[in-house]
Design a protein that fits this description.
The structure is a single chain. This protein is mostly helical. The protein contains eight helices and four strands, in the order E-E-E-H-H-H-H-H-E-H-H-H. 61% of the residues lie in helices and 4% in strands. A hairpin with a 6-residue loop joins strand 1 and strand 2.
Length: 284
């Protein structure tokens, strides 16, 4: 019979088996228990790096800025001190032209003091004074506009020169004609030829002025646009209507009304405003 080897527990001194790993009396471990093998952990998968998406730039906010127009009620020019007198002379010539037109339409049956007084002045002189007065107003207008916009002033210069040349040619066609019928035929041909130039050279600077300015200068721009169309319609009535037709009277009065309105705008823009000294003293 074999006896197993024994030994004493180093902790409590009791006798235990020599191969014991733990004391059965005190419960102390004589050898450290074998640890369970640690399961090898796989490294966590690295998150797949995704390519950052390109962000589209946000559109810049639209800035709605309202462009302020300059208000202009007076254009400085060399003739500002004389423009009121020039406008009065132009009004007088238009009145005389109206009388001449009525005499031509009605005939020599009119026997009135006003008609006799107007007939004392030769029609050639009246038309010449009329053209000269408009040349002076065109000159003042060009000088005043040029200080603000060379582009607009250049367009107006071409328009003014064309108006003067057109008026002189029309006057020459009437004077050189042997009869009223021949004069009407000449004017009709000239009207057809110059209509596109009249409209274009008047409307283009008119649109430019309306877009940039307020006040009396804007009135000029509007007149250049709408006045050109009304002048064209008036000339169309005058040239297409038969002699003595009511359309002839409409065209005559329309022409005179448009010329009076045009002179009024020029006088407003080119005449230096009078400063009230009493108001200026109060402001001081």
């Amino acid at each position: 019979m074999t006896t197993e080897k024994k030994k004493n527990c180093p902790y409590c001194g009791e006798e235990i088996m020599a191969v014991a790993k733990k004391c059965k009396h005190c419960g102390e471990w004589l050898e450290q228990p074998a640890t369970k093998p640690v399961r090898e952990q796989k490294p966590a998968p690295v998150a797949q790096q995704t390519r950052p998406q390109r962000r589209e730039p946000e559109p810049a906010p639209v800035q709605t800025t309202t462009e302020t127009k300059e208000r202009v009620d007076f254009l400085d020019n060399p003739l500002s001190n004389y423009m009121k007198t020039i406008s009065y002379v132009a009004y007088a010539t238009i009145f005389a032209i109206l009388i001449y037109g009525l005499q031509e339409l009605i005939g020599d049956t009119i026997d009135s003091g006003i008609y006799k007084f107007v007939n004392y002045v030769p029609s050639g002189i009246v038309y010449l004074v009329f053209i000269v007065s408009f040349i002076l107003m065109y000159f003042g207008m060009y000088q005043g506009i040029r200080q603000r916009s060379s582009q607009i002033s250049n367009w107006l210069l071409v328009f003014f020169i064309w108006e003067i040349v057109s008026a002189l040619i029309s006057f020459g066609l009437v004077i050189s004609a042997d009869s009223q019928y021949e004069a009407d035929e000449n004017l009709l041909g000239w009207f057809v030829l110059c209509t596109p130039f009249d409209l274009a050279l008047s409307i283009i600077p008119g649109v430019m002025i309306v877009k940039r300015y307020e006040g009396a200068l804007k009135w000029l721009g509007q007149f250049l646009i709408y006045g050109a169309i009304l002048y064209w319609f008036s000339d169309l009535l005058d040239n297409m209507a038969y002699e003595g037709a009511p359309a002839k009277y409409v065209a005559l009065f329309m022409d005179c009304f448009l010329m009076i309105a045009e002179i009024g705008i020029y006088a407003k823009l080119l005449t230096e405003p009078v400063v009230n000294t009493e108001d200026s003293k109060d402001d001081a």
